[in-house]
Every structure is written in C-alpha cells, then in structure tokens.
Backbone:
C-alpha cells in the first residue's frame, strides 16, 4: 500500500483545515484532476489555498491500482492581510448528481467554481470569496459585524446557490 502526505510549509499553517475536489474524472482511471487544500494559518494567518493535480490509480473498494499516484502542486492563492485566515473553508460548487455521462467519455461535466472564506477578515467580521476559476474572483460577501466569523462554513446547494454559516450572526 502506498502512503502519500501533503505537509504544510511551517508549523501553524493549519494545512488541511479544509479540502475539496475541484475537478475529477472517474471511474475509468481513478483519477482526481485537481483538488484544493486550505492553509488558514500560513504566513502569520494571511492564509493560503494550494491547488494540486493528482493522477494515477488509487485503491477503490479493496482493489489495488497498477500505477502509482502522482501529486503536484500547480498553483496557490493567498489572503490579502495577515490574520484574515484565508482558506478556513474551501468548497467546490460542483454537483456530481447532475454530471452528464451520456457521451460515454467517463468524464464528469463539472466546473472549477469554488468559494473560500477568510473568517479573520476585519476583526473576525469574515469574508467569503466566490471564484470562477483559480484567479477569477466573481464576487465577495462580508459579515455584518466584527466578531461574526462569517464564512465559518460554506455549502453549495446548487452551483448557483450557496449557504454561508456565521458563528455569531444575529438572526
């Protein structure tokens, strides 16, 4: 059995606080094309999201693959200021239940739209960035007051509808 580890650059990076698959193809090759890992403690809490590609077979339901996994860091994005904790939540907008398999290609028709939170932004007011691709910020949303922790959790209901949790929100 093969063991793969992705480690943060420094103690305190909080690497792996959030992980999401952004694009993948299955089941023909067992390949995950791109995934993202949140590192909200990186650079004194500025935070970072690192993007990785992965190719090869992995173990599915007890069967072993023929070719080893290859993982490569392909890109990263960082928060704007120290202490904002960019990458606390990283969530893909993909929805496997609406993938189109009718063409028989074995590839799901999914996008790379995703959301990233910075819960420490503006004295923990919190901020959520909605991306359309790795470096294309579509829009940002912020909490209504300091100490709210807006973006503690994020969940896409559909690729166009997102719910954002806030630890200290007033309803």
Residues:
């Amino acid at each position: 059995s093969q063991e793969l580890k992705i480690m943060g650059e420094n103690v305190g990076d909080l690497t792996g606080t959030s992980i999401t698959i952004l694009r993948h193809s299955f089941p023909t090759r067992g390949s995950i094309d791109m995934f993202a890992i949140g590192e909200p403690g990186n650079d004194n809490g500025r935070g970072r999201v690192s993007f990785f590609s992965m190719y090869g077979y992995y173990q599915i339901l007890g069967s072993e693959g023929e070719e080893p996994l290859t993982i490569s860091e392909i890109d990263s994005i960082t928060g704007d200021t120290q202490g904002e904790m960019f990458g606390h939540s990283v969530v893909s907008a993909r929805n496997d239940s609406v993938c189109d398999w009718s063409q028989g290609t074995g590839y799901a028709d999914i996008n790379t739209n995703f959301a990233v939170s910075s819960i420490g932004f503006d004295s923990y007011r919190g901020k959520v960035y909605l991306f359309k691709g790795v470096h294309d910020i579509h829009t940002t949303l912020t909490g209504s007051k300091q100490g709210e922790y807006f973006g503690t959790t994020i969940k896409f209901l559909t690729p166009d509808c997102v719910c954002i949790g806030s630890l200290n929100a007033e309803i």
Observations:
- Helices lie at 42-45, 121-124.
- Residues 148 and 170 are 9 Å apart (CA to CA).
